[in-house]
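Protein in question quoted for reference:
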Amino acid sequence: MEYITAFTVGGIICALVQILLDRTKLMPGRIMVLLVCSGAALGFCGIYEPFQEFAGSGASVPLLGFGNLLWQGVKEAVDKSGFIGIFMGGFKASAVGISAALVFGYIASFVFEPKMKK
């Protein structure tokens, strides 16, 4: 039953993003930023935790989860280091994911031959 909930929530998030892409003039990059910021805002409001418990990986894997991860890192760093934690908390919390994306993107650039769109 848990898998059905995760797939359903993840599918609903994807469907909403696709509707935004089809019905608005928002570019994919802006929608991605909107999702990350929404995850951080939901974490700040205390709504994301119950949502994640209900939805499981359907809520934690998409960009909403990344936004919440950034928020949690900033919150911990501010509690520990004060004002300077605003600047370093998100980087500490997400460093592994960002590093992996950079490394695998770099490897993929050697494996595949990128072509510019005309």
